[in-house]
Amino acid sequence: MKVYAGNLPFSITDKDLAAMFEQFGQITEAVVIKDKFSGRSKGFGFVTFAEKASGEKAIAEMNGKDMQGRALTVNEAKPMEPREDRGDRGDRGGGFNRRRF
Predict the structure, then answer these.
(1) Is 10 contained in some domain?
(2) For the chain, which end, N or C, has fewer CB atoms within 10 Å of the first or last residue's CB respectively?
(3) pLDDT tens, residue by residue, 9-23
């Protein structure tokens, strides 16, 4: 079972996240989502448990728990919904190859 953990402190690492949830059962993966440019945490992550019962127990006990002054949001992870194509990725006519007459 995959669990979403939100409103995490920005200083948390993957190892910290795993340590926070390992009391509930065997963890197969713990990942803090990071900004691809800065490498800084986005304040949420995912924990995958080997058994569904472990994930449900973690949700029941960790949702709303205070961590460094932040109330955690912990619930079952939902599949990411596809983003709507905004249609603004075409040629905009700008850039460095623009000819000047």
Answers:
(1) yes
(2) C
(3) 999 999 999 999 999
